[in-house]
Design brief:
The protein contains 17 helices and 25 strands. It is an alpha+beta fold and 544 residues long. It folds into three domains: 145 residues, D-Maltodextrin-Binding Protein, domain 2, CATH 3.40.190; 113 residues, Alpha-Beta Complex (Dipeptide-binding Protein, domain 1); 218 residues, Dipeptide-binding Protein, Domain 3 (Dipeptide-binding Protein, domain 3), CATH 3.10.105. The strands form eight sheets. It has a seven-stranded mixed β-sheet. A four-stranded antiparallel β-sheet has the order 4-5-7-6, covered by helices on one side. Strands 19-13-20 form a three-stranded antiparallel β-sheet. A hairpin with a 2-residue loop joins strand 6 and strand 7. The longest helix is centred in the last third of the chain and has 17 residues. The radius of gyration is 23 Å and the shape is globular. This is Peptide/nickel transport system substrate-binding protein. Keywords: Signal. InterPro entries: Peptide/Ni-bd (IPR030678), SBP_5 (IPR039424), SBP_5_dom (IPR000914). GO terms for molecular function: peptide transmembrane transporter activity.
Length: 544
Amino acid sequence: MRNIRFRQILATGTAAIALATVLAACGGSSSPDEAAGDPVFGGTLNFYDPIEYTAWTPVNSIWSNSQVANNLAERLTWQDPKTGQIKPWLAKSWEVSPDKLKYTFRLREGVTFSNGDPLDAAVVKANYDQHALGDKALGIPPDRFFSDYQASTVIDPLTVEVAFTKPNAGFLQVASFYRAGSILAKPFLERDLNGQSQAKNWVGTGPFVVESVNGNTGITLKRREDYNWAPTGAGHQGKAYLERVVFKTVPEAGTRVGALQSGEAHIARNISPYDEETVTANGGRIEAFAVQGQTNKLSAQLDSTTPIVDKQVRLALQAATDRKEINTTVLSPSYPIPSSILVKDTPNRGDASKYLGYDLNKANSLLEDAGWRKGGDGIRAKDGKRLQFEVWVAPFYQVSQPVLELLQSQWKKAGVELVIRTVSQTEYESIRNTRPDNWTLVQGQTSRAEADVLRTAFDSTAQNEFFAPVPDAKLDELVRAQAFEFDPAARTKAIQAIEDRVFGEGYAIPLYDETQVFGLAPTVHGFTTESTARTWLYDTWITG
């Protein structure tokens, strides 16, 4: 399969690469198309996605779900996806206490949920309490993004105070985040986990509401006619332009591209690199949006019984990874080459370029020094055991398979055997939950346009991505310390220290900057996303 894909990409030639570069440079714009004319109201937009829609809880980050949910529920603040600046939304203003432990939000007047209930301080408190603390009686776990949360207090009907036990420099961004900051109505919050996992039960303040649900393969949204509280920075105010949006699961990449060409689909998510030119050659366009937060990477599982626990081996794998070749061979200019643990343009991002260069000689030297010798087939061995690692293809990422296949050939040059396993999404999640001893490397990334995502991911008391049997006390100290820094320069320095620790220890192997690539029919205008590339259709309209 890889060779076929390689030929498809290479056959496009330098002209196609140049075209894709121009498209990537233009992608991500939130401005309406200059040649499209004035926006028009009405119409149904058809959105095709490769992944099924399951478990509709607010904290679910499955890519397909979040493209929909971002249009149903809103947040107190809005993060400009271009600048990272935090702006008013459901909160018209806020203050941070001198000790940085309290945030006081003043809410907009006249905002209502889709069931007619008013937005007030009491329902904001109820949402934040449930997000941060969970609810055992309802089976709802706490959200890991609410670190050091103490309580929310209603000051008056439109003023709420949110308190923390420790300073939290990233909280205004949490309040803007599509999953952690979502505000939903009281009837929804009173449901148990099963009730909250059904899209038909969502009651938000967003510009769209759920009209119908088709199992796990489709959902239709309809416009709220009385909506009039878009965030600062939106392209217009009042109701959305689109009357309806139909989201549909279409796993086959070729079918999604064909639907764009025929006019059956208006937007298709996860356009493969080798399909980008096909879309543009037929009058469509490619929009590529950086998923701010962690870069797409392999995380070492340090509780493994394999050689991944050896720092020398981890550093060798890092040196044997040629990210430029990955980009030019199986990806496209839509995907930036990683130079940090954070995706390009993520606020306060550090620079890890010195750790991420390709150096096959260094990789071979490190493995030799660690006692791994090449055998007759070119694969190294030590004490009778082959230097072999297994990795499962992450079904959530369109480009996972070809990237891992190329990585397999790169590591083989250093005498490392990478065994690739491909399973269904259900099987993948089951295997991931059981975490077998031979699970040595996990592909993934956590998206949040805030450097504090590193605390969520790496803190041994939080997500704990590396699963070290004995926590790395230094890493814990660094990821926690950055949250206390409110000065931008000091914060950037603190993030750089985290980068130095992670890559100095070889804990993570970046592959590419996570990017969402959408194919748009020529009739689609004003399309944009929020800061982590989740679709936001409020300003979108269609013609023809």
